[in-house]
Specification:
By secondary structure, this protein is of the alpha/beta class. The chain has two domains: about 220 residues, Rossmann fold (3-Layer(aba) Sandwich), CATH 3.40.50.300; about 70 residues, Alpha-Beta Plaits, CATH 3.30.70.1560. It has ten helices and 14 strands. The strands form three sheets. A six-stranded mixed beta sheet has the order 6-7-8-3-9-10, with helices on both faces. A four-stranded antiparallel beta sheet has the order 2-1-4-5. It has a four-stranded antiparallel beta sheet with strand order 12-13-11-14. Helix 3 packs parallel to helix 5. It is elongated and about 80 Å long. Belongs to the ABC transporter superfamily.
Length: about 300
């Protein structure tokens, strides 16, 4: 199946010589949720802006539904809905009229039933006759989503959709994304909240210094790169780690009551059996043990750190 969005060798260099994007290539499949992660200044917003036709790339191509974003701008842009981090809204404008206006910008006839359906899905229907100035911050964020969905796009871009909002609204946005995915809308989001990607995404892309350094299925990424940490609760505090245990690269907690051992889940041998034997030989007893899987945040930090160390 052909991807609904295809980016090929995309580059963007601004006046002054700053290269924001470096040969970015990416395919997005219809109906998936793709999370684009990266530190501040990594190129996330520039990439989205180039895909949406808001920034002209220096070189490379972007096709949306088979339409080139530059030569077939209107057809390509018709397929895209964009929810920016911030969008100025007219405070005295009526909520329902604002969404209808966004639909009209794409040449679509007014369809009150579709607009009402969007407002209901985003819990804005009761505010449809209210002025925007009467909305709470969370409702204004939902209104941006409603405006982006007004022309029934196939792809929805969410640029930091929950930045600066409370936890309750963040979870509401997660539920909204889930419902949109169920209707077949392709969703691409940028976020600083790793738990958003972990909660919602099918695939994860990491961008750093204008380059895509990894694109992987979320589950497979965590399987490949995830580490586990074994924590042993000692029966008695340990003054120091005996030299006989040096090969295991153990860490002793500051209070001397816990030993931790990190191991690769993909390795042929974890070394845990050997560790237990070595602990017994050293006369070290423990009361309890537990294992913890590394999170997507741990993996992301390691990827960016390693990328910077290798000169990316």
């Amino acid at each position: 199946m052909a991807p609904i969005l295809s980016v090929r060798q995309l580059e963007k260099t601004y006046e002054g010589g700053f290269q924001a994007l470096k040969s970015v290539s990416l395919d997005i499949q219809k109906g998936e949720v793709f999370a684009l992660l990266g530190p501040n200044g990594a190129g996330k917003t520039t990439l989205i802006s180039a895909i949406c036709g808001l920034v002209k790339p220096t070189s490379g191509t972007v096709t949306v539904g088979g339409f080139d974003i530059q030569s077939d701008f209107r057809k390509a842009r018709q397929l895209i809905g964009l929810v920016p981090q911030e969008m100025p809204t007219a405070p005295f404008e009526i909520v329902g009229d604002s969404v209808a206006f966004s639909r009209g910008l794409f040449g679509l006839r007014p369809d009150r039933s579709k607009i009402d359906a969007i407002l209901k899905d985003l819990t804005l229907y009761e505010k449809r006759t209210s002025q925007i100035m009467a909305l709470s911050g969370g409702m204004k964020r939902r209104l941006l989503v409603a405006k982006a969905l007004a022309h029934e796009p196939q792809i929805l871009f969410l640029d930091e959709p929950t930045a600066g909002v409370d936890v309750e609204l963040r979870h509401d946005m997660w539920r909204i994304v889930g419902r949109l995915r169920d209707t077949g809308v392709t969703i691409i989001l940028t976020t600083h909240y790793i738990e958003e990607a972990e909660e919602m995404a099918d695939r994860v892309g990491v961008i750093n210094k204008g380059e895509i350094i990894l694109v992987e299925n979320k589950t497979e990424l965590m399987r490949k790169l995830g580490r586990k940490v074994l924590t042993l609760t000692l029966a008695e505090p340990l003054a120091e780690i005996p030299g006989s245990l040096a090969e295991f690269d153990l860490t002793l907690s500051e209070d001397k009551h816990f030993l931790t051992y990190a191991y690769d889940t993909q390795a042929e041998r974890t070394g845990i059996t050997s560790l237990m034997s070595a602990l017994a030989a050293a006369g070290i007893r423990f009361q309890d043990l537990q294992t913890d899987q590394s999170s997507l945040e741990d993996i992301f930090v390691d990827l960016v750190r390693n990328g910077e160390a290798s000169g990316l």
